């Protein structure tokens, strides 16, 4: 296999170096590691096609790899085989300011893209926190703090060039802003986590950099009041760009790590984008709505440094837990529920943390009902691992009982695979049929999202 791959590519594009294999054996999750047999580094769509043709003929498992920043074991090759690393396919092919579109290869990172877009007065909106590759972000339908205003990754995809399991190359869309033609393949492949094919080219939507930005921190006595305030803001149509809820215990952790002195109460971190006159109206109206909902303090920041400091404190919450619990691994889980159920879901999650005697934080993208639990676990302590798994299951089961989903943005991978049948019911069989049709030999990232046997 190694020799054949070197003939299909070149010797320097094929690696069995132990360090390289180790790097591709894990992501940022707590899941068990597994090494591929070989890592290949294609440079073109044609090379990806040749790799998949060969792998499909010989029924060799294939796992696409971006930066390894995923959180549910998506890229861990439990069946070994070939890992395709897309780091050499990192070209920005075209920037089309008039169409508000970009065409990129899958190895381009969001930071790399935004640096290139800045000179055109544009930016790419999806920010999952990590500097992930755009191919990986499409594969997991990534989201983040700006989803309430700009949408998730699926909303940005205009077209994908996909290499299927047998090496066939297809396009899933066009440059048109909308279409009523054919099945919606953009939606099918976005979030497919490498189980249906490999992305080799992405056409994505971008936005104009806002004229003004204002950030705010609002404090409440209860989580219910904070959620009510956000609901009011959304209902009246204020174009809020980011809104994050951090619970009381997590604010305490933020203060300890960042040497800040935020009131240790449920807190909203907000951001608004727009023109100067419009923002002034939005700020005034938001303040009124927040106070009506029971806000005890709201502070706005227009200065860039102060605004960045505010969001740095929010983004560093995970690191503050990691640094405060040496020797422990962070289990990060996420669910999404109807906004009307969010406050209850967060309370339930905090009760479960107390019940299972685990340290952890809770934060949520309140505008879309998505929240995360950051749980510190000693992976060498079997009892603690068991309690963490029980906590994870309790949070997921609660979300599903409210007609929510087991994952709002992290994806399924292996960590949430066991909940797929329960969440989707008979639709799970439809998904399995699609998988078997497009990948009959089950070579594409086997065991992730949908478990099927080769035909």
From TrEMBL:
Its EC number is 1.1.2.4. GO terms for molecular function: D-lactate dehydrogenase (cytochrome) activity; D-lactate dehydrogenase (NAD+) activity; FAD binding. Transmembrane segments: none annotated. It is an enzyme of class 1 (oxidoreductase). Residues 32-209 form the FAD-binding PCMH-type domain. InterPro entries: FAD-bd_oxidored_4_C, FAD-bd_PCMH, FAD-bd_PCMH-like_sf, FAD-bd_PCMH_sub2, FAD-linked_Oxase-like_C, Oxid_FAD_bind_N, Vanillyl_alc_oxidase_C-sub2. This is D-lactate dehydrogenase (cytochrome). Keywords: FAD, Flavoprotein, Oxidoreductase, Transit peptide. The keyword Ribonucleoprotein does not apply. One of its GO terms (biological process) is lactate catabolic process.
